[in-house]
Amino acid sequence: MRGFLVPVVSLVVALALTGCATAVEDPPSVPRLDTVSGPHVVVLGTAQDGGLPHVACDCPRCEAARHDPARRRLVASLGIVLPDSGKRFLVDATPDIRPQLDVLAGYTTTDAGRVDRRPVDGVFLTHAHLGHYTGLAFFGFEAAHTREVPVWCTPSMAAYLRSNGPWDQLVRLENVVLHEVSPGEAIDLGEGVTVTMVSAPHRKEYTDTVGFVVRGPRASVLYVPDTDSWNGWDPPIVDLLRNVDVAMLDGTFHSLDELPGRSVESIGHPLITVSMDLMEATAGAGVYFTHLNHSNPALEPDGEALRTIEARGFHVLEDGAQFPL
Ligand SMILES: [Zn+2]
Ligand SMILES: [Zn+2]
Ligand SMILES: [Zn+2]
Question: Ligand nearest 128 Cα, by number?
């Protein structure tokens, strides 16, 4: 890591994400998102595809989240914001896209009083699993009916969207315009910010999977929400960590304790405990775990798992956190 950047958690962003408007006396109707100036990343969600509370689960942690908005987490997603040009980009389109677009709407100063046909200036997709692309459906005719929103994805993801409903209709009606990108190719967003794909080994039922490196004039962020174990990475993940300031990585499961009867090899995600062992000497302070499953004990505020992660110099990503680029 070249340096450690402290994230700024904006209370208003957190409130917009949790819907907990009663925690302040006079909640602003539009969140003021001026905590970080210049290009930055805003964390729009940190839960695994099923969310927190997880759909149809009544485990104590999900029940607690149902009754306490502060404990809820939206499905993993990022916003990339370029304030000078007023541009906003979405990384992954999740089932929680409605409140997530509300947060990004707070970055515009114009309010036309009607549906914004261009709610974002582009979308970057990691892969075709439920939590990462199905929110695109809200760009379609039945909802926002967006106009030519660029979607950057791999050729495999683009082919999947073009040839399967309802996604093919979004392409046909030009709600979205697909741009095929290969790993290593940099996409220039302006204001000195670029986005580059990195290949991630992960279950390929429909498409391949990527992560992204977002580089700005001040700092860089590596985002890999979903991957198989780090063993399959080429180049090794620790090499990538040396060239970024912050890494937001797959923290779906904490340890084998939450997966009785399963072996590390069978899980299909890097356990947080295994990631910390691998990265401790390389990275430390700049690694934030995201895409947390509802079973993950690191979700417990002040719990032992979270305390241990922090004590070892790692972090659990929070909805609403902002990082300068
Ligand atoms: Zn996922
Ligand atoms: Zn649960
Ligand atoms: Zn996945």
Answer: 3
